[in-house]
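The protein record quoted in full:

***
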Amino acid sequence: QLQLVESGGGLVQPGGSLRLSCAASGFTLDYYAIGWFRQAPGKEREGVSCISSTGGFTNYADSVKGRFSISRDNAKNTVYLQMNSLEPENTAIYYCAGRAAGVYDYCSGNTASWYLDWGQGTQVTVSS
């Protein structure tokens, strides 16, 4: 199975930035679409962004468009989520998830069940 490990979370002030990393082991990440999800206390898990295996298709939740960006570095077997202009409402545990690529260059931006492998999550706290 694909092993995913998130890192880069922490405490940041409103308006600040963080870059989350999703590192893979066991398999080359080239074969996998990767999604980012988050879950805040008392709320359901929601999709944040995703990137297809080739990088040719990306998706963003409306709430983060223009502030977050997803990218991948295959040489480092890592997918990144750059988060700018962070707000307290962005506080959550952030998870990355993967699914082996199929025929189509695609990823699901908001359907958690589409993904088959998950990381352990990293805490992001936005507070003064």
Summary: The mean pLDDT is 96.
